[in-house]
Amino acid sequence: xxxxxxxxxxxxxxxxxxxxxxxxxxxxxxxxxxxxxxxxxxxxxxxxxxxxxxxxxxxxxxxxxxxxxxxxxxxxxxxxxxxxxxxxxxxxxxxxxxxxxxxxxxxxxxxxxxxxxxxxxxxxxxxxxxxxxxxxxxxxxxxxxxxxxxxxxxxxxxxxxxxxxxxxxxxxxxxxxxxxxxxxxxxxxxxxxxxxxxxxxxxxxxxxxxxxxxxxxxxxxxxxxxxxxxxxxxxxxxxxxxxxxxxxxxxxxxxxxxxxxxxxxxxxxxxxxxxxxxxxxxxxxxxxxxxxxxxxxxxxxxxxxxxxxxxxxxxxxxx
Length: 319
Description:
By secondary structure, the protein is mostly helical.
């Protein structure tokens, strides 16, 4: 499969696996742009705190940002970290918005770029203090609604593990990998970026990725090489399990010697539990339960959590 076909296949699988994501996590152009600036080098939870401060101070417009002293603004965005630098960046962008006039802000401070293509607007944004490639693409895609694919740490991680990292490994080269393979469609770029982020946070994590639960495993050379690529070892705990497909149990039993290798887990007990479930009995053991949950894709089962007893969550077969 060539790189372009792989890029399209990854999108199809993630969309089928995760469903539509509904990004951007912002309410209106101002919040989207301010959020894109404030999220630099921090988590979105911290950005939400900074935005809440701006909202409480009635400072959710570029006019309000222009009227505010930089020190006052820095105090409001302090939760986002690097608050002095980010205050200066917000002030610089507010000045840029004022200078653009109707060509960029025909409805007050709402970002809109009639007559500007994605690349032209992106080039302008890169000339604003504090706006780098990723932030510029966030603004072009999510605020202006123009097609410019966003590359972030999560996207790079997935691309690298799929074995299609470009050379040189520059921002532009990663972006070209997607834009050359996909039609220039802003909603499509939006959805794909959100899917990649969701997948990287839940499955393709930085440390100990859950390769056994990955919808892309058969496409991923990195996942296939990992000792736990097919099944993920887990720690001891408590869980309630029920109703597992007998064929899956047989596969589990075959894999148990390799999976349950920690000192505090009895292999014989796990095999016994597997056969108890095979016979329709209920068993209690969270190592076994979490093992099933994290490896449901590879085992050919799907498990949904629903309220259980005092031992914790209970699981049932759904397919």
